[in-house]
Write a structure and sequence with these properties.
Layout lengths: L2 H7 L40 H13 L7 E5 L4 E5 L5 E6 L2 E2 L28 E9 L5 E6 L4 E5 L9 H6 L7 E3 L3 E3 L1 H12 L4 E5 L6 H5 L7
Length: 226
Amino acid sequence: MTTLFANVVAGLCLCLLAAGHASPAVASDAAAPAGRAPHRANFDREQASQEARHVADWVVHSADNLGMPFAIVDKANAKVFVFDASGQLRGAAPALLGLAKGDDPVPGIGNRALSSIRPEERTTPAGRFVASLDRNLGGKEILWVDYDTAISMHPVVKGTPAERRAQRLATPTPLDNRISYGCINVPASFFANVVHAAFSGTNGIVYVLPETRSPREVFASYDVAE
C-alpha cells in the first residue's frame, strides 16, 4: 500500500479520484401494468431536484439496485439521499464534494502525490458504484464508494480552519459545499444514523449524479412516466 493511498484511507478527506467507474446497468423500460401506477421512489416530504427524482424513480422501477439499499449524490445541489432496497427514503443531508466541477476523474490521478493535484482536478466523478462499509486505517467507519480509486463517503472531517467544513455543511446554500479532493463528506450524525444503518451488513449502490451531462447519458435511465 502506497503512502498516498494510506493517507486517503486514513480519512483525511483527501480522497483521490482515479479513472473509471462501474458501467451503468442495462435497465428494462417495460411499462407498468395497465391500471397500476409505476413503482417509484418515496421521497416523503424531502425536497429533491428533478434529476434526483428521475434517477431514484428509475432505480426502483427498473430494479437497477438489485435488491440492495442505494444512495443518490446530487452534486449540483450538494445533497445525499439514502433509500432502503424498496425505494423508501431513510434520510437526506447536505454534503461536501470535490472542489472542481466535472464528472470524470483525471487519468492516473490516483498515482500522483496530493501536492501535485491542481484545484481544477479535484472532481467527484459521476457514475454507478457498488459500495460497502469498512474502516479506514484510523479505525473510523467509512462507506467505500469505489475502493480501487479511494472514493468514499464519510463523516465530515475537521480539515484546516480556513476550510470551515462544518460551517459549510450548515449553510442553506450549496454554493460553498465544493471543497474536498473528491470525497463525499456528510454530517457525522447522518452517517451514523442513516448511512451506517442502511448499509450495515450489506453492499449497496451509490449513484453520483452528473453535472456536465444528463443522467440518461450516464445511467441509461428513463422517465418512469413514459
